[in-house]
């Protein structure tokens, strides 16, 4: 039973998102903006890039607080780990993804096709290695590598928090609760620490990874059309030949077959006579920025 000096706060656990990129990160920026404005019911806790010069890394590290980033380039990985294979690379990428225990993985311009090994690990079918491959990169953010990422918890469990300005598991700053919660609960001057059992339950919950971890991808084509690389270029060429009069963009779940997973959000885009491929690409990218947020939101809201 809760004493007069304690308060029980049912707070929903915030969802964690890991984003994989290879380039400028404009779609990453759309996700960041949506997360920062609370449009997206989750926050990005890790950005992994296959290229060290990807501008998306700067976008992540410029956030307040900076988002941890990791660079793992395929050529560099293979050269530093003689005898390793492309599958080994994907296994290491999967291990890095799991380090932040994400609820959702978003491919936002990730330029590698993920192997079955990666998918098996994120589906919980195969266990990821517990230790990094030799010469494996470490996250490059200077912020949250030595400090735990702050967490909030599942609304199904009543949890007692301590009033403490430090950011640690089991502790929630009073200022972060919002005036409406504070007023409605009539918080007393002293809020007691959670019991040892409650603390252990909270910590154990966040030690768990909940499989399967959904993976979504953004592809600039309609379902079943122009799978794989250079989809915009191939669609443009088909339009010039009079074979099609529209293309599109979709967010889909990632499965073993390339770009064949369940479509989550689809937008059709009419082709225009006299339009250059660059102009078409610009219109497509504008739509991408919208639907990548819609797709991520749809998946997050469907998680229990």
TrEMBL record:
Residues 15-122, 211-294 form the Formyl transferase N-terminal domain. Pathway: Purine metabolism; IMP biosynthesis via de novo pathway; N(2)-formyl-N(1)-(5-phospho-D-ribosyl)glycinamide from N(1)-(5-phospho-D-ribosyl)glycinamide (10-formyl THF route): step 1/1. InterPro entries: Formyl_transf_N, Formyl_transf_N_sf. The keyword Ubl conjugation does not apply. Keywords: Purine biosynthesis, Transferase. The keyword Transferase applies. GO terms for cellular component: cytoplasm. It is an enzyme of class 2 (transferase). GO terms for biological process: 'de novo' IMP biosynthetic process. It comes from the Eukaryota. Coiled coil: none annotated. Its EC number is 2.1.2.2. Residues 128-153 are annotated as: Disordered. Residues 128-142 have a biased composition (Low complexity). One of its GO terms (molecular function) is phosphoribosylglycinamide formyltransferase activity. This is phosphoribosylglycinamide formyltransferase 1. It comes from Tremella mesenterica (Jelly fungus). The lineage of its organism: Eukaryota, Fungi, Dikarya, Basidiomycota, Agaricomycotina.
């Amino acid at each position: 039973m809760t004493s007069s000096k304690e308060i029980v706060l049912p707070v929903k656990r915030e969802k964690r998102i890991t984003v994989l990129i290879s380039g400028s990160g404009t779609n990453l920026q759309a996700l960041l903006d949506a997360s920062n404005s609370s449009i997206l019911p989750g926050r990005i806790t890790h950005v992994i890039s296959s290229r060290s010069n990807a501008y998306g890394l700067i976008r992540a590290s410029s956030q307040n607080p900076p988002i941890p980033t990791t660079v793992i380039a395929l050529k560099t990985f293979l050269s530093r780990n003689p005898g390793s294979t492309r599958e080994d690379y994907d296994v290491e990428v999967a291990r890095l993804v799991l380090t932040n225990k994400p609820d959702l993985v978003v491919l936002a311009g990730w330029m590698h096709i993920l192997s079955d090994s990666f998918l098996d690990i994120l589906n919980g079918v195969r266990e990821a290695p517990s230790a990094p491959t030799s010469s494996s990169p470490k996250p490059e953010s200077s912020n949250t590598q030595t400090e735990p990422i702050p967490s909030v918890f599942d609304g199904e469990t009543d949890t007692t928090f301590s009033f403490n300005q430090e950011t640690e598991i089991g502790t929630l700053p009073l200022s972060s609760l919002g005036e409406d919660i504070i007023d409605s609960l009539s918080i007393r001057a002293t809020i007691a620490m959670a019991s040892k059992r409650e603390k252990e339950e909270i910590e154990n919950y966040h030690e768990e990874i909940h499989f399967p971890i959904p993976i979504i991808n953004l592809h600039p084509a309609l379902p079943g059309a122009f799978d794989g690389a250079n989809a915009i270029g191939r669609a443009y060429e088909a339009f010039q030949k009079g074979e099609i009069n529209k293309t599109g963009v979709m967010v889909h779940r990632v499965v073993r077959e390339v770009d064949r997973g369940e479509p989550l959000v689809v937008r059709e885009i009419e082709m225009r006579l006299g339009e250059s491929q660059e102009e078409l690409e610009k219109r497509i990218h504008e739509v991408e920025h919208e639907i990548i947020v819609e797709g991520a939101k749809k998946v997050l809201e469907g998680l229990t």
